[in-house]
Automatic annotation (TrEMBL):
The modification N6-(pyridoxal phosphate)lysine is found at residue 220. The gene is hisC. Coiled coil: none annotated. The keyword Amino-acid biosynthesis applies. It comes from Sphingomonas quercus. It catalyses: L-histidinol phosphate + 2-oxoglutarate = 3-(imidazol-4-yl)-2-oxopropyl phosphate + L-glutamate. It comes from the Bacteria. GO terms for molecular function: histidinol-phosphate transaminase activity. Its cofactor is pyridoxal 5'-phosphate. This is Histidinol-phosphate aminotransferase. Residues 28-358 form the Aminotransferase class I/classII large domain. It is an enzyme of class 2 (transferase). Pathway: Amino-acid biosynthesis; L-histidine biosynthesis; L-histidine from 5-phospho-alpha-D-ribose 1-diphosphate: step 7/9.
Length: 366
C-alpha cells in the first residue's frame, strides 16, 4: 500500500451528527435540536467567564483543582475521585478507552446516546446494542446481552434521545446482574432536571461500588455548552486510569471559572428546572390530545420530548413543516428512529408555537 491507511475500526465509525442550527435553505432559526438551556447561562457564570480574559496567556490549571473541589463540596464527594473532561463526551471516551479494546464488547441500549458506538469503535472494541422496552432501557435485555467479552456498559439516565428514565431499583438490578469485571458507566447528562424524589442512586453507586462511573455535564442545565466542561466520579482506580489518557489541559481557564460560578448559582439552576418541568408537562399534555392522530410523546424526565408520529402526519413531514415555520428539532432516521422527533423544551413562546404547529399539521394531514 503506497499511502497510510486509517485503521479499519476507525473507518467503521459513523461520524457524530450534531443538532442543526440552520434550515435547508440556510436560514438561522430557533434551535431546539441540541437540548441547550432556553434560559441561557447564569449571569454569575458569564461574569466569571469574562474575567478569565485577564489570564489568556497562561495555561489552565491542568488538574482543575478548584472546580473539582467545588463539585466535591456540592455533592459530598472526594475531590481526588472527581475527573474533569472536555465535555462529558471526553469522559465517555476515556472510560471506554481505559477498559475496552480490540476483542472486547461495549454494551448499551438501542436508541441510546450516539457517542457510545463511536467510543467503542475508536478503541477497536465491538459495539453491542440491547433491545429497548417501549424506547426505555430494558435491564433484562441488557443483562441477556452480556457475554464474557463485555467490558463496558453504558446507560444514559435520563436517556437521550428518548427521555426515558431508569428508576433506582432497576439501575441497582442492572449492576447486581453484571459480572464484577464489567464497568457500568451511568451517563447523567440530564440528572439536574430530575425531581429530588427521582434520584436514581447513580452517584451513590459511584461512591461505593468498585465498578461504577458516573458522568455529568455543564452543557445542559448549567447553560455552558460552548465551553465543553464535564466531570465524572468513580472508584479511585478507574479515575486514575482515565486521567492517564486524558488531554493534559482539557478544560479551559474560562470554562473552569464559569463552571464554578454556575455551580454556585443554585437559583438559576432551580429556575431552569422549574421552567423545564412546567413546559415539558404542558407540551406532553398537548401531544396527548393528538393521540387520535397517531401522535404520542414518550414520557420524558429530561429537557426534551421524544414525539412519535405513527398516523397520517409522518415525522419527516412534521420535521420539515417545523423547519418552514422557523424551528429546528431533531429527526433521527440514522438512529433507527425515522418515526420520531426529539424536541428540546424551549421558551414558553417556542414550546407553544411548536405544539400548535404540530396540531395544525396533524389536522391538515388527516
Ligand atoms: C448532551 C449529552 C452528553 C454530553 O455532552 P457534553 O457537552 O459533551 O458534556 C452526554 N450524554 C448525553 C446522553 C447527552 O445527551
Amino acid at each position: 500500500m503506497n499511502r497510510p491507511l486509517p485503521k479499519p475500526w476507525i473507518t467503521a465509525i459513523s461520524p457524530y451528527v450534531p443538532g442543526r442550527s440552520t434550515t435547508d435553505d440556510g436560514r438561522k432559526v430557533a434551535k431546539l435540536s441540541s437540548n441547550e438551556n432556553p434560559l441561557g447561562t447564569s449571569t454569575q457564570a458569564r461574569a466569571a467567564f469574562a474575567a478569565a480574559a485577564a489570564t489568556l496567556d497562561r495555561y489552565p490549571d491542568a488538574g482543575a483543582t478548584a472546580l473539582r473541589e467545588a463539585l466535591a463540596a456540592a455533592h459530598g464527594l472526594d475531590p481526588a475521585r472527581v475527573i474533569h473532561g472536555t465535555g462529558s463526551d471526553e469522559l465517555l471516551h476515556l472510560a471506554c478507552g481505559a477498559y475496552a479494546g480490540a476483542g472486547d464488547e461495549v454494551l448499551y441500549v438501542r436508541y441510546g446516546f450516539s457517542v457510545y458506538p463511536i467510543a467503542a469503535r475508536r478503541v477497536g472494541a465491538e459495539p453491542v446494542e440491547a433491545a429497548d422496552r417501549d424506547y426505555a432501557t430494558d435491564v433484562d435485555a441488557l443483562l441477556a446481552s452480556v457475554t464474557d467479552k463485555t467490558r463496558v456498559v453504558f446507560v444514559a439516565n435520563p436517556n437521550n434521545p428518548t427521555g426515558t428514565f431508569t428508576p433506582r431499583g432497576e439501575l441497582a438490578r442492572l449492576h447486581a446482574g453484571l459480572p464484577a469485571d464489567c464497568l457500568l458507566v451511568i451517563d447523567q447528562a440530564y440528572a439536574e432536571y430530575l425531581a429530588p424524589e427521582d434520584d436514581d442512586g447513580a452517584l451513590e453507586m459511584a461512591r461505593t461500588l468498585p465498578n461504577v462511573v458516573v458522568t455529568r455535564t455543564f452543557s445542559k442545565i448549567f447553560g455552558l455548552a460552548a465551553e465543553r466542561i464535564g466531570w465524572a466520579y468513580g472508584p479511585a482506580e478507574a479515575i486514575d486510569a482515565m486521567h492517564r489518557i486524558r488531554a493534559p489541559f482539557n478544560v479551559t481557564t474560562a470554562g473552569q471559572l464559569a463552571a464554578i460560578a454556575a455551580l454556585g448559582d443554585s437559583e438559576f439552576v432551580a429556575r431552569s428546572r422549574a421552567h423545564n418541568a412546567r413546559w415539558r408537562g404542558w407540551f406532553e399534555g398537548e401531544m396527548a390530545r393528538l393521540g387520535n392522530a397517531g401522535i404520542r410523546a414518550v414520557p420524558s424526565k429530561a429537557n426534551f420530548s421524544f414525539v412519535l408520529f405513527e398516523g397520517a402526519l409522518d415525522a419527516e413531514r412534521a420535521y420539515r413543516g417545523l423547519m418552514d415555520r422557523g424551528y429546528i428539532v431533531r429527526w433521527l432516521p440514522g438512529q433507527g428512529l425515522p418515526h420520531g422527533l426529539r424536541i428540546t423544551i424551549g421558551t414558553e413562546e417556542e414550546t407553544r408555537a411548536i405544539a400548535a404547529a404540530i396540531a395544525e399539521m396533524a389536522e391538515g394531514a388527516a
